[in-house]
Design brief:
The chain is 36% helix and 31% strand. The chain is built from six helices and twelve strands. It folds into two domains: 22-196, no CATH class; 207-244, Ubiquitin Ligase Nedd4, Chain: W, CATH 2.20.70. Strand 4 and strand 5 form a beta hairpin. The chain is globular and about 50 Å long. The protein has helices at 3-20, 24-36, 106-120, 154-159, 168-181, 186-208, and strands at 44-54, 57-67, 70-77, 81-84, 91-96, 99-104, 129-135, 139-142, 148-150, 219-224, 227-232, 241-243. By secondary structure, it is an alpha/beta fold. A five-stranded mixed β-sheet has the order 1-2-3-7-9, sandwiched between helices.
Length: 244
Amino acid sequence: MSKAVLLLFVVLFFTLIKLLIPSKGKMGERTVSRKLNRLPHDRYKVINNLLINSCGYSTQIDHVVVSQYGVFVIETKNYQGLIYGGYNTDYWTQNIYGNKYELYNPIIQNNGHIKALKRLLKDYNSDVFVSIVAFSKRARLRVDYDEVVYWNKINRLIKSYNQECLSREDMYNIYSILLSENKTSRKNIKEHVRATRKNIKRKNNAISNGYCPICGGSLVLRDGKYGWFYGCQNYPKCKYIHKV
C-alpha cells in the first residue's frame, strides 16, 4: 500500500469517527434532553436544539421548556474542572489541573437567546422568560447564581416555579410558534455556524483595537472585585466587560 493511499485511509477513518461519535457538547445536550423529557408532558412542552432567525441573525438555543409557569431557556455546558467568574464579566475561567482557559460567560450568552425569543414572542410579557445555565457534574462551580445549576437539578428548579403566568392557551400558542419558526435544516445550521464565526472575529477585532464590540465606545482599564478588566467608557448605559 502506497503512502498516499495509507494517508487517505487514515483521513477517511478519523473523519468517519468524528461523524459517528458526537462531541461532548452534543452528548451533554442529549443527556439534558432525556432529563427534560421526564417532565409531565401535559404541563411542560420541550423543544431541543431550537434555531430561530431574529433581526437578520440566527440564534441557536439548546433547550426551551414552555409551561404555564414560564418559558425556560436552557443553555447546556459539558465542561470539567473548576469554573468561576462574575455575573457581568465577558468571560469565565475554566481551571483544569492548574491550566486556565477562557469560556464566554454562559449567563450573558443565554440572555442573548432570551432577547431573541422576546423579539419573536413580542405579544407576550417579557417576565415569563426564565434563564437556566446547566453544567455537568464534571465541573466544580464556584459561582453563586440561582440560574446556574448542575444537570441533575434542572427539573427540580423548573418545578420550583409554581405560579401561573401564562394561560394554557398561551402555552400552546408559544409552543406552536417556536416549532413553526425552528430552522434546523442542515443548510441553516451551516449558515448559523458561519455567521457565528464571523461575529466572533468581528468582536475580537474590536477588542484588540480598544473598542467596545457592543456600542463602539472606548475600552477603559479598571480595577474591580475580580481583578483588572476593561470596561466600556459608556458605563452604566453599556455594561460590557472584558477580562484582562
